[in-house]
Amino acid sequence: MKTELILVGKTTNKHFVACIDDYVERISHYMPFSTTVVPELRQTKSLTADQQKEREGELILQRLQPSDHVVLLDEHGSELRSIELAQWLERKQQVARRLVFIIGGPYGFSPAVYARANEQLSLSRLTFSHQMVRLVFVEQLYRACTIIKGEPYHHE
Q1: pLDDT tens for residues 12-40?
Q2: From residue 103, how far is each of 6, 113, 130, 133, 154 by CA, in Å?
Q3: Cys-Cys link to 32, which of 2, 21, 47, 152 (CB 3.0-4.6 A)?
């Protein structure tokens, strides 16, 4: 199963970039994994939040294939413990050809992106910056991979 993480906008903090790149490389030892950056919209001062979500949504939807299993990382999604995420990932690996996770822009997702999604996951009830969410997610995905393989990274 191929796995992709779609992000709206570049990661700008160099420390986050280094850590994210490290985890992306680690994940790639367990499964085909890639990240895709949807460019940030320019000249957004004249756009409402809804207009910005709509335009970002169009760019996101262009990158999806009809058979993709799409998972939004969203504050209203299901919360899983790390072991539950590993079990969830293992089940998806058996049925999905391509698993696509999406981290949206600062205002979230458009209704069209929500409609296309198969699921929503939340990383926490806490609010994180979009930059930080990227790092937290790839670390948790790596942790799930090590749990599936029975490796000692995760401790109960």
Answers
A1: 999 999 999 999 999 999 999 999 999 98
A2: 6, 11, 8, 8, 24
A3: 2
DSSP 30: T
pLDDT digits (tens, 9 = 90+) for 69-119: 999 999 999 999 999 999 999 999 999 999 999 999 989 999 999 999 999
Alpha carbon dihedral 77, 124, 143, 20, in 10-degree steps, equals: 100
Strand, coil or helix: what is 104?
coil
Take residue 94 and report the two structure tokens written for it. 């058996």
* Digit-coded pLDDT (tens) for 44-75: 888 899 999 999 999 999 999 999 999 999 99
Question: What are the tokens at 146?
Answer: 């090590």
Residue with tokens 């079990």: 87
| Angle, CA of 129, 133 and 71, to the nearest 5° | 130
Q: Residue 41 is encoded by which pair of tokens? A: 């919209």
**Residues near 31 by Cβ (< 8 Å), separated by ≥ 6?**
1, 2, 3, 93, 145
Of 119, 122, 151, the closest CA to residue 137 belongs to 122
